[in-house]
Amino acid sequence: MEGCVRNDRRAQELFYRTFFPEMLRMVRRYTRDEDTALEIVNNGFLRVFKKLDTFAFKGSLEGWVRRLVYHSMADYFRSNARYLHFLVLEERDDVVPERSHDTFFEEDILKIVGQLPPVSREVFRLYAIEGYSHGEIAENLNMSEGTSKWHLSTARQKLRQQLIELGHIPHKQERMA
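RE: above sequence
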């Protein structure tokens, strides 16, 4: 880290190579376009290198890097409104109507996620936002993979119901018409 703060290119390359695969994996959960994913990750690392001297050694360095790359991703999606439908709510998602993109933002999603039961909220965050597998979540939260999948399913159902109630996605009956 000291080398990175001093702009030592070798230290920065080592830092980048250490965290790049995990950050790219996280970003790929939201976009399948490789160029977009690389742009987001690289912008995130630019942000990391600019702020590296502010890391307070409280919590994990990887978590801090992940947060900055995630913020870079959120900024990208916010500035490119066509990507606002990136949140997966079901295994077989329906198309999100274009009208909902005009009034629905990341803050709305996070507010609804914050209303989930604590364990379901944590599983959802780890899986949908952080990009962990069910095996990793199960190990970290001391539960079975099946329980992790159940919490994710529960979270998705509750989020979907909230989005229907708020009018951001149509009821099933309306979609069939």
